[in-house]
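ok so heres the complex, two chains, lmk if somethin looks off
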Amino acid sequence: MIALRVALGIGLLFIVSLIIFGATELLPGDLAQQLLGQGATPETLAALREQLGLNDPAPVRYWNWLSGALTGDFGVSLSNGRPISELIGARLGNTVFLALYAASLAVPISLVLGILAALWRNSIFDRAANAGALTAISFPEFFVAYILVLWLAQTGIFPSMVRINPTTTFGDRIYMTFLPALTLTLVVTAHMMRMTRAAIINLMASPYIEMARLKGLSPLRIVLRHAVPNALAPIINVIALNLAYLITGVVVVEVVFVYPGLGQLMVDAVSNRDIAVVQAVALIFAAAYIALNLLADVLSTITNPRLMHRR
Amino acid sequence: MSFAVSVIIGLAGLFALAAALRAAARAGLSGRARSIANDIPLTAAFGLLVIAIYAAVAIAAPALAPFAEREIVGNQFEAWSAEHLLGTDRIGRDMLSRLIYGARNTVGIAFATTALAFVVGSILGLWAALTGGWLDQVLSRIVDAFMSIPALIFSLLLLTIFGTSVLTLILVIAAVDATRVFRLARAVAQGIVVMDYIEAAKLRGEGAWFLIRREILPNALAPLVAEFGLRFCFVFLTISSLSFLGLGIKPPTADWGSMVRDNATLITFGDITPLLPAGCIALLTVAVNFVVDWQLYRASGLKE
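and the predicted structre for the whole thing:
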């Protein structure tokens, strides 16, 4: 079961790499023409084509690109000629740090809120949490970010820009990245909370829950011991989906807080039309997205004995 | 903080107005319209009112705005005053006027994009479900592959390739979102194509286009309408985010996302003006979500 799912995931990643690579083939003209513009002389065009390896047929170029990417060599940036792996290096770590930081805040908060909303369903708390969640889903990320800046950075409690250098200590990093992480947390918590609540309420109508209630267990114990273990699969799924969502969320948030991460790199590359960098970053983001979805499937299989030992 | 108070009072006023309009509709209308007015929740009435106000502002923008969209009428970053109610922006254009024109540009472009994504996605989805076989397989697998790339990342990739103009923006976002619409339209239609009346229409000799238009679409409309609202929210937020990143709608066209980006420096001085366009985006998305929530509830046939 699980081996098959992992194999499917790898196959999917392969197809995605084909799409990301193939997208450049849609360019009107070719990459060299695009880079130099209409006024380029045939000699400079030919020289650039040679330099970029554009004279090889597409499958050969794809193979070179993919095998390079697998060993961490993404070629050079088209706008400044530096190796892409060097550009990505430290930034990848920063982005992963931010996403994990946001996740470590968002997951416990949304689980607790979701369980409480299910426990006290149709109460004022439940309604307020639901309306708040719907509102939070509707806000653009940069709106949330700037409200936090106005509220928490203006008063001088937290810095509104993140300046990370190699000498920054872990504690300082946690402190400096608090606002970006909190923004991401607010954006993803709403959805996770709603799904947790729905998954638990779905189960509350089952006969075994009624049995537990009839034998006099406390509502909290019913939810924690009887409902949550069976609701784990959908909850894990939605957590993984939202972590995957964090991947795209970081792009906007990194720009707001001038955070030196992959998202910022990608936005700069898009405005410079630096297709080599965009491809590399897109491949990394897509790989992380697929890996998280794969992890969700595997985990929800493991938590469900009926899926694990299918007859 | 006085500004936060006035925002809260303004929202409360809108809610009160929505409640009053609902009461008036209950008293004045009859028949089907009345039964809708009877069971519309307050949040949905509020949502409809807000959407109507946005539409009115977008249509009447030139009449409402005190200055032209691109005209430079003052110094940069002027404070709020009687002449410039919301001050001026980075190069001295009137903020209020640009905010009003933004309703036309930002919402208009998002709406056009959603409509395009919907037409393409739902026709292909219904067609795939109706025809089945290899066509369905090919289209579905292509869509699956595209959907395994995060939407924003894929849009950024395509924008790099095709350049960032408004037309490519609309086409790229519509293409990416059409895959999501395709999924839903196909799933809804699959439950319909197995019905006897489809079989009967096929035996009558009707073509695929007639079947989609006259037999499947009317029965698939309710979930598709709700999806249109949700899709609009996604598209609207995506386009605003891209404009905010400097990759979407660009100045001098007045657009809410790029207005936030342009004037963001003011926020570090504690001025809330740059947040107003973002607030406009948020309010419209909340309003649409409220209406969609009500529509989904109606479509699901649940009662309290």
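quick notes: The two ends of chain A are 12 Å apart (CA to CA). thats all i got rn
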